Amino acid sequence: MNSHAFRAPVAELVGTALFVFFGAGSVVANAAGIPLGPVGIALAHGVGISVLITMFMTVSGGHLNPAVSLALWLAQKIDGRRFAFYVAAQLIGAIIGALLIKAFFASGVGRVTSLGTPQISGALSLFQAIAIEAVLTFFLVSAVFGTCVSPTAPRVGGFGIGLAIFTCALVCGSLTGAAMNPARAFGPALVSMDWHGQIVYWIGPGLGAAVAAALWRFLLLPRDATDLV
């Protein structure tokens, strides 16, 4: 692997670790008595990802999410090799982020919150939970294409994507946790060994990412759009 190809997965690993630490950590901190509330948790996720995407965009593209990498692979913006390296790096980074939460927060609150693992409302069926995650991920991935991938996109860094995550977390955080990111769900679930509803956070984002990729690739991207580098 050349130096550029090595730097990119490292950026994805570090960025995802930090996102899980601050995102899932906000859930744990709220339960520990820091009064963040739903708005604060949504802001931690949205602002955090905005900074991280902007930080790592020139190194790896700032995916930080297997669903985003999947969409860009399906849209032929990255090749299969990069997709595999990115997803592996993201999952490892998510585990590291969850381990940092476990190390820094009291064990009791970590157990109660499953280290910030997203939870599904008891009022939802499995199908409803998957559908919600699919719709939210469709919105998120569309924000990625519309603000970062398209050659005519406004150059706002990760700000538009962060706003999309903030909106989704604020509206649907109480329903599914609004993960939209298999790594965000996987890392805390593995470290806390809480696998409740984990399938939702793989099938839902995968479906949403695939539909968004098809829409943008075949209909919305300019015909002269070039591949990411």
Shape category:
globular
Portion in beta strands:
under 5%
Total helices: the number is 9
Q: What is the helical fraction, as a range of percent?
A: over 70%
* Average pLDDT rating: 95
Order of helices and strands: HHHHHHHHH
Biggest pleated-sheet summary: none
Q: Quote the distance from N terminus to C terminus.
A: 15 Å
Question: Which structural category do the helix and sheet elements fall into?
Answer: mainly alpha
Q: Radius of gyration over alpha carbons?
A: 16 Å
- Given as residue ranges, the uncertain stretches (5+ residues, pLDDT < 50) are none
How many β strands by DSSP?
0
Would you mind describing this structure in some detail?
There is one protein chain. This protein is mainly α. 73% of the residues lie in helices and 0% in strands. It has nine helices and no strands. Helix 1 packs parallel to helix 4, helix 1 (3-31) crosses helix 8 and helix 6 (126-149) packs antiparallel against helix 7 (159-176). It is globular. The model has no long low-confidence stretch (mean pLDDT 95).
Summarize, please:
With 229 residues, the protein is mostly helical.
Question: Would you spell out the secondary-structure blueprint of this structure?
Answer:
Elements: H1 3-31, H2 37-60, H3 66-74, H4 80-104, H5 107-113, H6 126-149, H7 159-176, H8 182-192, H9 200-220
Helix pairs in contact: 1-2, 1-4, 1-5, 1-8, 2-7, 3-4, 3-9, 4-8, 6-7, 6-9
Q: Which tags fit this structure?
A:
0% strand; 9 helices
